[in-house]
Amino acid sequence: MRTKYSRVLLKLSGESLMGHQGYGIDTERLNEYARQIAEIVAQGVQVAIVIGGGNIFRGLTGASKGFDRVKGDQMGMLATVINSLALSSALEAIGQPARVFTAINMFPIGQHYSHRTAIEALDRNEVAILAGGTGCPFFTTDTGSALRAIEVQADVMLKGTRVDGVYTADPEKDPTATKFDEITYDEVYNRNLKVMDLTATALCKQNGMPIIVFDMDTPGNLAKVIAGEKIGTLVY
After folding, report:
1. DSSP H helical segments within the chain, as ranges?
2. Cα(19)–Cα(16) distance, integer angstroms
3. What confidence category does residue 1 fall into, taking pLDDT thresholds of 50, 70 and 90?
4. CA distance 114 to 152
5. How many CA atoms lie within 13 A of 222 on its CB side?
6. What is the biggest distance separating any 2 CA atoms in the chain, rounded to whole angstroms?
7. DSSP per residue, 53-72
8. Helix axes 141-151, 115-123, angle to 10 degrees
9. Who contacts 65 (Cβ-Cβ below 8 Å, separation ≥6)?
10. How far apart are CA 31 and CA 212, in angstroms?
């Protein structure tokens, strides 16, 4: 199968890893993600990944319950490391080499991130899993994903979610919401759509990083996006 992209940054939701459990990691969902990722690597696509930590701990939620915001965000960063280790284990179990990089030095849990070493891993056909967000509080994993996509010179940032694109409103709450096939960064901002946080959107706009929002929970969708099929929503 011909692929439209040669190097991608895939942003995965921590909440999606819960499956139907309500907390933690659903191994069936995790293994399905690993299979989809290994499938596109086998087609010659280089894959860097950022995973959220909301299935374990979310810094903003912790702050609303009385945690110090900086410490809450640091706890959230650690949650992303746990998810990253789980995904690397699932990938290696099916024969796909993977390497975990951490924004904060956490050797031997992961290799300290630098864009050069991450690109070297990608060139070896290893999946580079970039954990720990930006390493700084007050930044989301969406912003971390945008930053890492730019740093590793990805062709596109793929945001895998539970929803099949960007809508005029939350389709899980508003049955009249309609889907966009394409939308500009400015429209996302002006309509106050919850695609990503504003910092991440601005970073992608400034650096010309296109975003495709798609449903990652449907097996085969990742390969369809890589092939250039018109699924999800292109933000440009």
Report:
1. 27-42, 59-64, 69-93, 115-123, 141-151, 185-190, 198-206, 221-226
2. 6
3. low
4. 9
5. 29
6. 51
7. -TTT--HHHHHHTT--HHHH
8. 70
9. none
10. 23
- The half-sphere exposure of 215 on its side-chain side, counting CA atoms within 13 A, is 12
Q: Please provide the size of the chain in residues.
A: 236
Residue whose pair of structure tokens reads 């097996």 in the numeric block: 219
Question: 109 Cβ partners below 8 Å, 6+ apart?
Answer: 81, 85, 100, 102
Beta bridge partners of 47: 8
Other Cβ atoms within 10 Å of 69 Cβ, number: 14
- 1 is written with which tokens? 């199968």
Q: Which residues pair with 130 in a beta bridge?
A: 101
Residue 78 phi/psi, 5° resolution?
A: -65, -35
The secondary structure of residue 207, as a DSSP letter, is T
Contact between 48 and 76 (Cβ < 8 Å): no
Listed in sequence order, the residues at least 6 apart from 81 whose beta carbon sits closer than 8 Å to its beta carbon are: 100, 102, 106, 109, 110, 131, 132
pTM of the predicted model as reported, rounded to 2 decimal places: 0.94
Question: What is the torsion angle, in degrees rounded to the nearest 10, for the CA atoms of residue 35, residue 89, residue 151 and residue 115?
Answer: -140
The model's pLDDT over 29-63, given as tens digits with 9 standing for 90+, comes to 999 999 999 999 999 999 999 999 999 987 777 77
Using CA atoms, how far residue 117 sits from 47, 107, 113, 194, in Å, is: 14, 15, 7, 32
Q: Residue 64 has what pLDDT?
A: 82
